[in-house]
Design goal:
This protein is mainly β. Helices cover 1% and strands 44% of the residues. The relative contact order is 0.20.
């Protein structure tokens, strides 16, 4: 049984469902090193100074990948050991995004710095990173000049894939470029620009979904491989009619017809100005491939920490950090686990959670400290028992540096 998930960078936890969770041990410092024990007793790996964890995805109970800095790491034993499978990079090149379909097929987007316009490359492997083919993606001048060095990829199979490139814009804009391939990434064709930038996923060679926009609340679907997109308006439950903000998530489909999705709603606690926001959610189902959606359940607004949502089959799991603990929620159960003594962690945002079945999952926690001189932390946790217990698999701690050429503040 295959599960798919959807994530947002600062996501809201859904209060409707719930299991529990928690954590494990802080790590030793140093460069990446192998750890050969089982998940629960793993010798966790500490990443080097320039390797914050940017992406982490579990593909099966044993297999998963991590983008740490400009390094791609692969595990065959759920974090017991990590192999560096990074494509060859010249000193002035960086990885902007990656996607692993399985243990053999992977793709990455690379840009070359110190040039204007910067060049964009695709890297493709069909043997698990033992060898990569690196080729220019495009010569389109508007893309090379407007690219913001952030890319997302989606492949429903080894041949058909899409690349979403973020376009530079102000906070009042949300724009992107879209490319597709039908030969595994040997060649790419530019498609019409999507309506917004955001998270996206293709579930078949024709049907894909896009969630994003300036407010992160716009949901679109394509049924012709990305040539055109139609906005989807999910019905707002009565108790959410006064929401001041809503957020979308990518849906999950059990088959071509039956799917599930979630919307988050921010509601003010009182009618007074500057009243605190409460976070509620609504769960939706479809039986016609997303043509129409029905409200399945709602969760009353409550005070929750920012977190992540994972949708798979007919189940929705949420995770968020709260009071020196991590909480996971699924169905009607909820548990809280305190961080063990000696874990020197600031408040974390659970940015991603990936369940591949009812027992096995990864959770990525981040501390988005961008202030010069502060300590920023990223940490990857894993569970093999449905989040009853959680082990720390990878971590990075680094001091935020001033941008190159800048003068420190007095």
């Amino acid at each position: 049984m295959k599960f798919t998930g959807s994530f947002r960078q600062v996501l809201r936890a859904e209060a409707a469902q719930t299991i529990l969770v928690c954590l494990a041990i802080w790590l030793a410092s140093g460069t990446p090193k192998a750890a050969a024990n089982s998940l629960g007793k793993a010798n966790q790996t500490s990443l080097g100074q320039d390797r914050p964890i940017r992406e982490a995805h579990l593909l099966s109970p044993a297999h998963g990948w991590v983008l740490a800095g400009d390094h791609l790491l692969w595990t065959d034993n759920n974090g017991g050991q990590w192999n560096d499978v990074t494509p060859p990079l010249e000193s002035n090149r960086s990885i902007d995004g990656a996607f692993f379909l399985d243990a053999n097929h992977a793709w990455a987007i690379i840009h070359q710095r110190d040039e204007y316009p910067e060049h964009i490359y695709t890297a493709v492997t069909t043997n698990g990173g033992n060898a990569w083919s690196v080729e220019p993606l495009t010569t389109d001048k508007d893309v090379l000049e407007g690219y913001a060095n952030l890319a997302k990829l989606s492949f429903p199979d080894a041949f058909h894939g899409w690349i979403l490139l973020t376009k530079t814009s102000s906070s009042a804009g949300s724009f992107s470029y879209l490319y597709s391939t039908s030969n595994g990434g040997e060649t790419w064709s530019r498609l019409p620009d999507p309506p917004v930038n955001g998270s996206f996923a293709f579930f078949t060679t024709r049907m894909g979904w896009l969630c994003g926009g300036v407010q992160g609340d716009e949901l679109y679907v394509t049924r012709n491989s990305g040539q055109t997109w139609a906005q989807q308006a999910l019905p707002v439950p009565p108790q959410m009619q006064k929401a001041v903000h809503k957020g979308c998530y990518l849906p999950s489909f059990a088959d071509s017809k039956n799917g599930i999705d979630v919307m988050s709603y921010d509601v003010t606690e009182t009618a007074q100005r500057n009243s605190p926001l409460l976070e509620g959610t609504a769960t939706y189902t479809t039986s016609d491939g997303g043509e129409t959606w029905q409200v399945k359940a709602t969760e009353q607004p409550a005070k929750l920490g920012p977190g992540a949502v994972n949708i798979f089959d007919s189940t929705i799991v949420t995770a968020y950090y709260a009071g020196n603990a991590i909480v996971t929620a699924e169905n009607t159960r909820k548990q809280v686990a305190r961080l063990p003594a000696g874990v020197d962690a600031p408040p974390l945002v659970i940015r991603e959670i990936t369940f591949v079945d009812s027992q096995n999952a990864w959770l990525l926690g981040i501390d988005d400290c961008l202030r010069q001189g502060c300590t920023s932390i990223t940490a990857l946790f894993g569970t093999e028992d449905g989040a009853k217990t959680i082990a720390l698999l990878l971590q990075n701690t680094h001091v935020v540096k001033a941008p190159s050429g800048s003068t420190p503040a007095a």
